[in-house]
Amino acid sequence: MKFSYEVKHICKQSGARYGVFKTPHGEIETPVFMPVGTQATVKGLRPEDLKELGAEIILSNTYHLFLRPGERIVKEAGGLHKFMNWDKPILTDSGGFQVFSLAELRNITDEGVEFKSHLNGEKLFISPEKCMQIENDLGADIIMAFDECTKYGATYEEAVKAKNRTKLWLERCFNAHKNEEQMLFPIVQGNFFEDLRLSAIEDCKPYAKCGIAIGGLSVGEPKELMYELLEKMEPHLPKNMPRYLMGVGSPDCLLEGYARGIDMMDCVLPTRIARNGTAFTKYGKMVVRNAEYKEDFLPIEEDCDCYTCKHFTRAYIRHLINAGEMLGAELLSIHNLHFLINLTHQIREASKEDRLLDFKENYLKTYKI
Fold it and tell me: What pTM did the predictor assign?
């Protein structure tokens, strides 16, 4: 088999899982944090930078690459791995969330989604079959089924309709998906209704061959509500495959998510806040662009061994950010991704040693959310 997943250890304290996910482009140890390269690049960083940071897998976005440069160009280049010079695993999301959050004048039916590009207003259409064709042409190892995401605060009726449509689309994605070099993950929807979430898990199980995703969380709800829902879902999720919580990745969410049996997480947050002059630290976020760091010649974190902290000071990075220099965002992106990848490694080790709940409690004592 080109894909397999083995749970190597389950933390006796928390139930967190340590596992190995085998793909055509290499093995991934879980739990894993996945940097996001929306448009076939993690903003500001080279593939070599990501490897030095310990990234095992990165994401790209189907919606954005469909709009530009177009999946045909990527396919002609030899697929995403060659196009972006990345020889490790790649995951592409379905574009469903972006269609519903970015596209203008969208019209959703059981056939698919008709929408206008947020770039130029061009009228476009994505069906489940079209989504599979795009993701096949992009050539990622792991691909997502086309789904309908609902906003926090949606009514029960709206959530039911979207869940049922996601099930319909999943079957069509499954039937259209023929590439054995790619693993299709179904996506569990259902908004914040427990019965719908559990029903959606059952909808997904027949189509989940080596992975299942959880979508529609971290969309504005209180974090405690997300954690509560994850706890209710966990006993019903497949045991023998990786579980991917989509679009979630702040330090506290990594701790809480992995402790609740999640194996894979991703988020644009580390590079997005870096471009705004903000760094992760073990005590919370540091807004480096602020005046208080003008004459601060310490590294972002004194005990951090990332490239940024070993070579540059807060004062220098603040200067770069306020001067609009690209290097500032790049250096903060390196630090922030190192921070989350390193935290995930610490969580992994704590899980293997059956002490994750102790680690989480001690970490959150000093981390200011």
Answer: 0.97
